[in-house]
């Protein structure tokens, strides 16, 4: 069975100021998402499911989905603030969506096979999709055998300011042991990679340290675990206006309760994203170089 690619795109309209401005960063105006879909098709994924907001559906179908028709089957599911379990209602002061793992839960109606989760606006690279596609296509893949692409931190940095990353530690079997969100990771004067820890101390990271860029692989049992953990989250935090239900916190719980393992898949892919406006020219140049090297054709879709 071919795995499915699940694209988190519910934040898209608000972040880009409307879909009309969906940023064309490739030489022919390709969006970052075009590269992910292209790489996923190449890596053997069989379907793409997007989670979006209801208010961008018309634009999204016309401007985004239409170009993938005939290349790979696509489906759309919706994240809305009122998609809550029975017995819960949205607090009056809640305006923020419930977070990335709530978005993942919306895929249950459309996904019955192993699936990968990515952000719509991150470039992950061909090798990242290939290592994930291979893992999710394994004949012997069992429920609870999850995975995550571990990018080398040096391949995810910005020259234009600090970044936040989920810094991973890996056990002897190559499984994820911990993910710690580190903020303000930046280059030092000697181009060393450093961050400030919870005690205010400067620490350095080896360039090859694996970090999470929200590229996860799950089996469908993840939906039931998520539903269970979401109820716990709401019982604790429904009245905290900015609280969010994140993928790493659910994964961390399942690892520590012995309900799942997460294989950290090594990749040499470089991650690109526009964290700062100043990052955009570098992304444009990097993608142009990949086209020039023959990594992508001029016409992708």
Explain how this protein is built.
By secondary structure, the chain is α/β, with parallel strands linked by helices. It has one domain: Spore Coat Polysaccharide Biosynthesis Protein SpsA, Chain A (Alpha-Beta Complex). The protein is built from eight helices and eleven strands. Strands 1, 2, 3, 4, 5, 6, 7, 8, 9, 10 and 11 form an eleven-stranded mixed β-sheet that branches. Strand 7 and strand 8 form a beta hairpin. It is globular and about 55 Å long. The mean pLDDT is 93.
Brief synopsis:
By secondary structure, the chain is an alpha/beta fold. It is 28% helix and 24% strand.
User: Under CATH, the topology is which?
Assistant: Spore Coat Polysaccharide Biosynthesis Protein SpsA, Chain A
Structural class of the helices, strands and pairings?
Answer: alpha/beta
CATH top level? Alpha Beta
Number of beta strands: 11
Uncertain segments are none
Helix content: 25-40%
- Tell me the major beta sheet: 11 strands, mixed
Q: What is the CATH architecture descriptor?
A: Alpha-Beta Complex
How many separate structural domains? 1
How many DSSP H or I helices? 8
Terminal residue distance: 24 Å
Order of helices and strands: EHHEHEHEHEEEEEEHHEH
The proportion of residues in beta strands is 15-25%
Q: Return Rg in Å.
A: 19 Å
Mean pLDDT: 93
Shape: globular
- Looking at CATH, the homologous superfamily is Spore Coat Polysaccharide Biosynthesis Protein SpsA, Chain A
């Amino acid at each position: 069975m071919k795995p499915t690619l699940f694209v988190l795109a519910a934040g898209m309209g608000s972040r880009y100021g409307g879909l009309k401005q969906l940023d064309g960063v490739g030489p022919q105006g390709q969006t970052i998402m075009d590269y992910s879909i292209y790489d996923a098709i190449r890596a053997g994924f069989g379907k793409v499911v997007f989670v979006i907001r209801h208010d961008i559906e018309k634009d999204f179908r016309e401007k985004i989905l239409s170009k993938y028709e005939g290349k790979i089957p696509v489906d759309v599911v919706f994240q809305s603030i009122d998609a809550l379990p029975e017995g819960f209602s949205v607090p009056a002061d809640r305006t923020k969506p419930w977070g990335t793992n709530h978005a993942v839960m919306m895929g249950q109606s459309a996904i019955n096979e192993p699936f990968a989760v990515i952000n719509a606006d991150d470039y992950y690279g061909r090798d990242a999709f290939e290592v994930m596609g291979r893992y999710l296509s394994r004949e012997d893949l069992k429920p609870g055998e999850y995975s995550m692409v571990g990018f080398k931190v040096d391949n995810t940095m910005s020259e234009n300011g600090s970044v936040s990353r989920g810094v991973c530690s890996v056990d002897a079997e190559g499984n994820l042991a911990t993910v710690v969100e580190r903020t303000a990771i930046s280059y030092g004067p000697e181009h060393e990679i450093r961050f400030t820890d919870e005690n205010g101390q400067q620490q350095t990271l080896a360039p090859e340290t694996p970090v999470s860029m929200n590229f996860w692989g799950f089996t469908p049992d993840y939906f039931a675990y998520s539903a269970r953990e979401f109820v716990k989250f709401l019982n604790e935090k429904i009245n905290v206006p900015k609280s969010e239900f994140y993928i790493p916190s659910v994964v961390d719980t399942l690892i520590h309760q012995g309900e799942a393992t997460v294989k950290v898949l090594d990749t040499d892919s470089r991650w690109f994203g526009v964290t700062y406006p100043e990052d955009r020219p570098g992304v444009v140049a990097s993608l142009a170089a990949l086209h020039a090297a023959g990594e992508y054709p001029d016409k992708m879709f």
